[in-house]
Design a protein that fits this description.
The structure is a single chain. This protein is of the alpha/beta class. Helix content is 30%, strand content 26%. Strands 5-4-3-6-7-8-9 form a seven-stranded mixed β-sheet. A two-stranded antiparallel sheet has the order 1-2. A hairpin with a 6-residue loop joins strand 7 (172-182) and strand 8 (189-196). Helix 1 (3-19) packs antiparallel against helix 3 (31-39). The longest helix has 17 residues, at 3-19. The chain is globular. 42% of the residues are buried.
């Protein structure tokens, strides 16, 4: 792992957290989140030909029309989940597997869905090779969630949905948090934090304007 590069990446994340604090309400991120970002080798999750840019604070293409998210956004979305070590999380949009590897450092179990089979296979193989044994990846339509392991303490969606998928709200545990970008590809997208209280009531707030690849559906419903 390029320790110097990852530390430099953390400094940039910390700086951007301060710059966006008026919008996000967070001047800094949980030290556990920052440690996870430092310990996961981001350069292992990007294609070899662009590995030199792995620690830059921007998204990068990973093939299949998909991207690995900007490190600051990964940090922010992870921090918004307010994870605890005993929790079980659902990720929608495995992509390269980077976000799942970050979450694996923070919780008991991560279930991750990826709609593109080739990416799911590649990410699962890489996650296994890197030794993250508390992540399970499968191919599936994220709009439907992964009901077998529900309810989840937290759900994170790493592609922009045009609407809030009802299945994800149903699969969120009372007291849980859902972090999701919402909006159409050609229009402004908003990163939203939804919280389900102990009585099952959902509250939502906008965190930040963002740009994500669109969340696709299998059409198999």
């Amino acid at each position: 792992m390029h320790t110097g590069n990852s530390r430099q990446m953390l400094h940039v994340i910390e700086s951007e957290a301060r710059l966006t604090a008026a919008l996000t309400g967070r001047w800094s991120f949980d030290p556990r989140v920052m440690h996870a970002l430092e310990s996961v080798p981001r350069d292992a999750f990007v294609p070899p030909q662009i590995r030199e840019f792995a620690f830059a604070n921007g998204p990068l293409p990973i093939g299949q029309g998909q991207t690995i998210s900007q490190p600051y956004i990964v940090a922010l979305m992870t921090d918004l989940l307010e994870t605890q070590p005993s929790q079980t999380l659902l990720e929608i949009g495995t992509g390269s597997g980077y976000q799942a590897a970050i979450l694996a450092q923070l919780v008991r179990q991560v279930y991750s869905l990826e709609i593109i089979p080739a990416l799911a296979i590649q990410a699962a193989d890489l996650i296994t090779r890197l030794g993250y044994d508390n992540v399970e990846v499968r191919t599936g339509d994220g709009h439907l969630g992964w009901p077998e392991h529900a309810p989840y303490d937290g759900i994170i969606v790493t592609a922009a949905a045009t609407h809030l998928p009802p299945a994800l709200l149903e699969q969120l545990k009372p007291g849980g948090r859902l972090v999701i970008p919402v909006g159409k590809p050609s229009m402004a997208q908003q990163l939203k934090l939804l919280e389900k209280d102990l009585k099952g009531k959902i509250t939502a707030r906008k965190v930040l304007d963002v740009v994500f690849v669109p969340m696709t559906e299998s059409g198999l419903r």
